[in-house]
Batch of 2 targets.
Target 1
Amino acid sequence: MLRLASVVVLCMCSATMAVLPEGSGTFDPAKAKNAAEAMAAFDVAEGLTVDLYAAEPLLQNPVAIDVDEAGRVFVVESDRFGHGVSDDRGERYWLNDDLAANTIEDRLAYYKKWAATGKHHPMTWYTDHDDRVRLLLDENHDGKADRSTVFAGPFNQPLDGLASGVLAIDGEVYLTNIPSLYRLRDTDHDHIADKADVLSTGYGVRTSFLGHDLHGLTLGPDGKLYFTVGDRGYNVPLPDGSRLYDHLDVGRGAVFRCNRDGSGLEVVYTGLRNPQELAFDDFGNLFTGDNNSDAGDKARLVYCVEGGDAGWMMGYQYMESPYLRGPWHEEKIWHLRNDDQPAWALPPVAHIGNGPCGFMHYPGTGLDPKYNGHFFLGDYRGQPASSKVWSFTVKPDGASFTAENIDTLIKGVAVTDVTMGYDGRVYLSDWTGGWSITTRGRVYTLADKKHIDDEAAKQVRRLFKEGFAQRPVDELVKLLGHVDRRVRQRAQFALANQHAAAELLAVATDHAAPQLARVHAVWGYGQIADADASKLYDLLADDDAQIVVQVTRVLGERGQAPARLETNIEHHPEAHVRMLSAIALRHIITADHARGLRDLPMLINVLRDNNDADLYLRHGLIMAMASLGDDEALLAHASDESPAVRMGVLLTLRRHHNARIARFLDDKDEKIVTETARAIYDLNLTDAMPALAAMIDRLPADNNPLARRVINANLRLGGEPNARAVAQYIARGKSNQAMQLEAVAVLGCWSQPEARDRVHGSYFAIAERDPAIVKRAVAGHLTPMLAAAHGPVQTDLVKLADQLSVNIGDEALARWVADYKQPVDVRVESLRQLAKHKAAGIGSLIDSVINDKSPLVRHAAREALLAVDAPVGVKALIEASQHASQRERQLAYEALAHAPGSVVDDYLAEQLGVMAAGKLDTAVELELVEAARQRSAQKVQSALKQVEPLMAQYTFALEGGDASRGSEVFAGHTIAQCMRCHRIDGKGGEAGPDLSHVASRVDRAYLLESIITPNAKIAQGFDTVVITTKKDNQTIAGTLKSEDDHHVTIAQADGKNVTIDKSDIASRTAAAVSAMPPMGGILKSHELRDVIAYLASRK
């Protein structure tokens, strides 16, 4: 049999499915009991009840679920999470390869490259575990699954996974599994797919992060498939030989749509980080929940308007402090609308949740009518206690939306997906907690016993059991007005399939018909290819704005519309209508250039009247103008008096990658100048790069986004005039410290530029250059640069001069060393350089500062002494390691690591013995051991073996850390991602406890144990426990609120606290483990110690 996982094609094909014989399962009452205990801790919205539908061994590691018309539950299981699918956080050595990858073939190539080196897993690691689609069956119709089979799999090839999305409809099952979109069919009805079509492939160009996969499958109101990919990106070959990819960077998340046979693939929205799922509201507006980057930013609800861009690039993820996450933070892209945001990106609708995952819109039956119009959004936070499903609505806000009525549907379940069954129940998949695979997995249902058997809900069950295709037209027309959107949609599709254009038009134009019936009638009419679109024209003037919206969408897709469309753009009272009308016009004037030219003045006038008040309306206007394809006509408005018009023209030309936008660098509006710089630099418009670089002579003092790009434009060009210009920029001293430091750093990497761009983190390789170029530039401007520099800038300039062998002059260096008013770092670096070349008078200078008031200067003097007179320097360092301040003792051991002589070996071996005896100051243990590890003497290595077991206990981290550095690790460590789950001072996630004042509650030993072995110390309020009492055999579940020697207090799901006498506890179990992975293998030793110091300072 042909294995599905081996099918990788560029067009649709078929294959026979492989069956896993071990993949079936049956109901296990013992596992159900464990799930029931977990359910006791759930906090469920009033009126809803929760029931277990399935538990292990029927399923495990569920990522996504869907329910088909027959009530069968399809589950995507991912056993390859961390066991066959990689993550850049654990493979930092290949990061540049990943950022450089442009196709899935590139990704496979570097997998093989690193496997061959032995640094990465062998290639068999990718195939040892499987993802699959599992089918859960309720054969006795009691509302619980009693059997499961593997419907499709195994998926286990190196490019595969994670399998992350499933949609079951009309006997077909669609699966998103990087690198491909599949259509699966069970033609012989044995619950096992035997046909598999690859509808498109090329998704997952990058490795990025686990979970940033291909997912989000849903069916749109136009009958098309919609789905998403995270910032693993895409580069998809199309049937005509072209390729679909993001021209800014292939590593960007996006929303796609295509016909159900895979044809007509296109991008709807881009610039997302990790949009797990999609949901349409009742009026065809598409939304997604996009995850945050674990650096204090917030997850976002995004309105996915056609052609929109949320602003994320994969490279942002790896940009560290002080430029943490790059433009994402500095330019406030993830924030709600603000004046600092780039104009090319659209702001989010709202900040909801922390880990958006499953997403759905309530269809209208099964629950209380109060949920009509509500979205349900899963929020996975790593452990059950804080994970939840949100409910909320959206309301118009100009041409976009804002969220309101935000509430919790259920809390306490580690939800990964949420969907609505045709039986009136909400289905939830439960990973059960953590960030790794287990052998667990559950599906729960939420039901409203009061409304599940409402007449409309019973109709839904009957209608979907019987189907729609065979129903007569008149019945289908009536069903267009059903309260449940799924019924309305299937009636719409059935009428379209029967080419019932006249009947659909009659409903659409019937002002007495229910609004939603008319909406679906318009959509259905639009699905009929040969239906006369002109018969919808009059509806562009309908009194109901929602009807106008839907007709506008349909006519836009058809590429035809009357002049009323332009009237609506200009005068309709609803901003949403105006925006969508402009987007529809885009499709029309693409093929009608003359009409576009006639419309351009009108579009310009609307831009002027809008005056950038509504960014989404501006977006629609730009979409229309961009489709004209006549940049000369646009440039005629480049000098318009209105900044809003000029901005609109600029953003339109940006979409064309037109380098003539360089003219806007001379605009009188600084926002327009900055936006121009973004376009030229970020899109690498090479013809405009010299003009951008030349701006360095006239930069404003505090516009970092502009200055950063101008400085780095000079780096890209790389000529000697560019190097001189950067040096002169520093010498003028008129910019802020951050940009001065950036300019110095750029000169430092001039001859060997970094592979990752300094502005946005994407891969941008620049060939090595003649170092003489930058050396001449620095040498020619060193004096004025140093005169203008202060603090860290001065320090970095001194280091730069040393790096380039540019002579500052011993007199100046010595003067700085002796001047206690100079920054300490400047004095230290100056002394180091003087000692390096044994400057005249260095001995006297050392003597003058060996007892300086600064411990760092005193240590620098000892290191200088080591350089000029090693025996004396060794003696001074040994003395300091015994009697100086804590920081000096640490630095002394660090210096001894490289000091010559057997005296050093004798001393280090002796100190290791002191440490083994438990008599060494904990604060210097790490420095001592690291120094010893760098010595080759046998006596040192033997002594080292005595203390390595102590190092494995991590007690060295209890003292000696630097709280300031620890703060940076906490906020910005790419792998540890502390802020993903923890909050400090209002910033960060909520999966774990708030650590703002953690030191007032616990000591350093507790902190260390919590970090190294998280399961040993789960914070109160995050430890889910189940207690059975002796007295009445009562089971009490909830989160641990408090505990002492005699009592345990449990916070139950209803908010009530129950205190239990410990003598009455018959059994006590933890229903969950910590979501935090052990950090001993993630944080470096110094990072761990610094984090302990930082947390210990939070009182």
Note: The CA atoms of residues 851 and 858 lie 6 Å apart.
Target 2
Amino acid sequence: MRLAFLDTTFGDYTPQTMQAAPLGGTQSAACYLALALARMGVDVTLVNGTSAPGMVDGVMCRHHGTMPVSVLARFDALVVMGGCDGDSIRNLHVASDSRCRLVLWTQHASDQPAVANLADPDTVNRWDAFIFVSRWQREDYIGRFRLPRHRCHIMRNAPAPCFAGLFAPEERIIAAKPWPPILAYTSTPFRGLEVLLAAMPLVRAAIPGTGLKVLSSLEAYQVPLERDPYTALYDRCRITEGVEYLGGVSQPVLAATLREVAALAYPNRYAETSCISVMEAMAAGCLVVSSRLGALPETGAGYARLLSVPPDPVLHAAQFADAIVAELNRHHAQSDGSERYLRAQVQHADAEQGWNRQAARWLSFLSDNASWQPPIQEIAGILGQLKRPAAVNDHDAMADLCARILSLDPARAGIWRVLMQIQAAQARHADALLSLGRAGRLEAPDPAEWQGWMPTMLAGVASGTDGTPLSLRIAALRAVRPLLSGEVFWAGQLTIAARQLASQARAANDAVVTLSACLLVAEMAPDDTGIRLAAAMAAQALGDHALTLELAVQALRIDSAAVLSSRQTRGVLHGWLDAAERALLTGLDALDANVAARLFTAMAVVTGALGGDASLARQAALAHEPQARRALLLRMVAARHRLAGRRADQVELLRQAASFGHDPGAGHRLGTARMALSQRLLLENLGAILTDGANDRLETGWQEQAAALIGQIEGLLYLDGNDESERSAMWATLRGYDAFLSWFKVAGPGMPPLPAPPPGGRKLYDCFQFYNELDLLEIRLAELSPVVDHFVLVEAAYTHAGTPKPLYYAENRERFARYADKIIHVVVEDDPGGFAWVREAHQRQAILRGLTQAGPADMVIISDADEILRPEIASQLRSVAAEGPSLFAPHLDIHLYFLNLRSQEPWISVAAAPFDLVRQVGANNMRYLAKQGIGQTIPAAGWHFTWMGGIERFLAKLDAFAHREMIDSFGNDGDVNRARLEKFFATGRFEEGAIPGMWTALQRVSIDDSFPATLRARHAQFAEMGWIAPESGA
């Protein structure tokens, strides 16, 4: 074969030039390719502007002036480098008379003037073939110029042979790279050098001593220094600390220099079509940090760290500095892993045989008649054509032929498997997995065909180094899920890759891919709550409220304690419910009935898990009538508005719900809400009076006005039309105001000093209401009797709900006989009537009946039977110095339902003060002062063990205590709530949600030295009694 290369830039060079001077990438590639073809026996001529024509290492070098069109047309093939003007290609086409194959081999981007005439179809038709140096470049040309695909081929570049053998097989590559590291810039100056110089101070600040060698100029294009427009940039290199400007150098000098370089620092802002600079750096064992532009992902083949390019060069410099510092530090810290990585990179670059392999592919292509024929449409014929590129490992040509076969018959599993292996060899990881997935859907592939490639493919897709879009990468992982999920190891690797992809998608604010990746992980990790919540966040961002809450339900059923123990997560769940309700208000009528049912069902579970009343959502899920469903929705939203304090909005929503006329109870609910709104307005007015009065902004008489208003509001709470939830909330607020007013009357705007103890010392009274907490009473007495003088135990003959009850302490007095001399037993037999909170206050106020012997300075602790101070805290209260604070607010660890379930939030309700202050303010009011933060806080002061003892004791307390709204809500959905409780007490987890009012933000803890010693001693007994959450709930 007689082959000629024509360089239309007419530069002056021969294949020997590279040994002594810098040369451009296209010209270097032509020389190396020509030399390799000549060694294969091809008659090769290089036509350019050489001033030294003649035979050079087997390549005939000719000056273009001696090679007219008529001579050029006599070659078997003429490869025109770069571009060709319209007249010249027209003349060549006419002269060749189809005897000489005219091939355009260009490394230009499609927007360059040298190839602009390809927009002319006549010009395109005069070329027999187009050779490109990357897949990206080919697709760019086909898209811009509509070139016929069958005439567009890929022949890639390779590193110079002088980059081969830089490291002996037994030599450690990283040993040749000094630290602090040396960086290099080897491309043309206009492609990113200015950005790099701006980044260098940041790099050197992070890794002191880092140096930069700049091997860049326009000499490679034979532009003399005096005409080089970038001399000012070179001068800037010379004056920048840590930068050494070397200019353009020959290939051997470049190879020797790069041997010591740690990384090619190439913040490129130009879309490369191939980039020989990167290939050479890879061959020299350099890390590569550059830009995700053009063909660089192909050239990097997964070894380069590629960054997106921001429009602002200043930002680009900062981001590049961060990236290269991270890459350098990572590899420096992992020397063994880096050595393996760099050795594989050097082998991939293949400097020793790279141009020989490319020459074999060129020769195979040029010699094959099929290369010059229109594409055949018979699969058998295309299969035959595969043999030619396969013989020379021409993966690009093989991939093209496989794609043609599959376009004719997509059901050929074998071709999909072949294509997978080709794409994997090309580091097209996402494409390879998609091809394997297609093959697997047709027939099960032999694991031997893919297992060797799989780690690299998964890692490549996870990292995204090939520049593949996130959407395609997650599609690739999903494609191989059926293949990998059956084996533990591969399922784990797939899960790791999907997690990485989910993290990247979140960082990119790509909710679609985030959701898909998280769902893939969820499929592979059935016990992962976090990934389901992450998926829910993505679904929420996409406006899919049903899926959002269904994913939240999945997380709750896996580990409700883990989900609900976080205040932030609970806030997120509330936010999702709010968003779903808002969306339903505007879009319920247009929503598909099945989607609506899904959404309401999920809302019910999440609401229940948060301790809310889920009955309305559950009714809405079952409702068939659109108006009935909307009325229930309005009631749901109204309830949430009430909880948020937006009672006017609540009233309006209930008015709308009542307007449908289907619900006989709607009028009563609306009236109750209106009553609550009016009461709230009175409470707001009362709060304003107290605030302004305490801050001396009102005239004398404000205390009497506030007291009168307290009496009026309390009287309103006696009305039968009150909602129990509202009554409980308003009672707490009212009692807080009453407590503050009582306190202010005694103390004024400051804290009264603690009175001095009597000569015999201050006594300590531990006072509490008692219902039936016999086991906790035993712990309390054992812990505190060494430091407490008297226990005032108040026991009533009525529950808070008004039901007669036994006197449990009186009936079990013998059990506590050893403490009898310290126990003052107060029995409350009188019932004040009214509602539950009135009885609760009356019974606590009866503590004063047991303090008849207390002196003014004696310390009184006000609590409930299940609220127990640590002995050391109680002892401190006894010995507080005179003139110190007179009111204390101990904060307790609160354990609910089981001893080993604890809230992260402290329990604030216990108060301690001298008797004289308790007498004046009131025993019941003291607790409300503590709740308002009045008094000196004592952190970690004790324990609140509440709702202990299993489901029957839970229900008994529910029926007895003052929060009547809980029993009402329980009854709204009795069977469901009973089932929820049974599940919870069997597992210690809110798998089916909680009943309204339950605390769900709990975490499992060990029963350790932080618990009372008496309790720890009875650990086994409490476990048998069901006071410890089962291990299955862990």
Note: The mean pLDDT is 93.
